[in-house]
Automatic annotation (TrEMBL):
Gene3D superfamilies: CobE/GbiG C-terminal domain
Highest taxon of the lineage: Bacteria
GO biological process: cobalamin biosynthetic process
Protein name as catalogued: Protein CobE
PANTHER family: COBALT-PRECORRIN-5A HYDROLASE
Species for this entry: Sinorhizobium medicae
Location of the CobE/GbiG C-terminal domain: 14-134
Transmembrane segments: none
Amino acid sequence: MPSAEGMTLVTAKLVMGLGCERDTAPEEVIALAEQALAHAGVSGRDVALVASLDARAEEPAIHAVARHFSVPPRFFDAATLEAQSPRLKNPSKVVFAHTGCHGVAEGAALSGAGSDAVLLVPKIRSARATVAIAGPADFARGTLR
């Protein structure tokens, strides 16, 4: 699809990984997600899906973020997230003790984005949540791939 003059066309290719404590306020996670996007210099239109640990599949805050960006949520088991351990920027023994994986937000973002993906925003945190963003290494705003 050609680009119209003066318009920027971007296909959604980013995966936002989310981690949170049970019953975290959706507003807290949404605010952190927006902060991560700003840090990356991208917008919610660039997000293809949100991802998290399957133990959080019923967590209202995760679903609120998915609705906020109008994307589907996807949930991975701990073994799938743990397989991303060598690629994590912020592995945590504490997280492993609680979840069975060394990183929820980063692991979920990488799992959802695929084997060639890189962390564009390593884990950032608020009081009760974490967010990371992964996508293609060659992701560039304004480029159709």
